[in-house]
Write a structure and sequence with these properties.
By secondary structure, this protein is mainly beta. 0% of the residues lie in helices and 61% in strands. It has no helices and eight strands.
Length: 70
C-alpha cells in the first residue's frame, strides 16, 4: 500500500502536502513547502505544543471520487 498523508496547519487553517514526516516519542515534525519556502511544523507532547493535525488516507473514495483522509 502506498501511504498518503496531508497536514492541516492549525495556525493558518490551511492544508499542505508534507515533504517529510518524522515521529519520535516526544514530538512529531512535518516539513512542508508553502509555495515560497520550506517550513517545519512541530507537535511536542512534553510541552503541549500542537501546530498541525496529521491525516492519513484511508484507502477509499467518496461518491465524487475524492480521497478520504482521517
Amino acid at each position: 500500500m502506498n501511504w498518503k498523508f496531508r497536514i492541516w496547519s492549525l495556525s493558518e487553517m490551511k492544508m499542505y502536502s508534507p515533504t517529510k514526516i518524522e515521529v519520535c516519542m516526544s514530538e512529531t515534525t512535518a516539513k512542508i513547502f508553502d509555495g515560497k519556502k520550506h517550513r517545519t511544523l512541530m507537535n511536542n507532547k512534553l510541552v503541549g505544543i500542537e501546530q498541525f493535525k496529521l491525516m492519513a488516507n484511508v484507502g477509499i473514495r467518496d461518491g465524487e471520487g475524492k480521497e478520504i483522509y482521517d
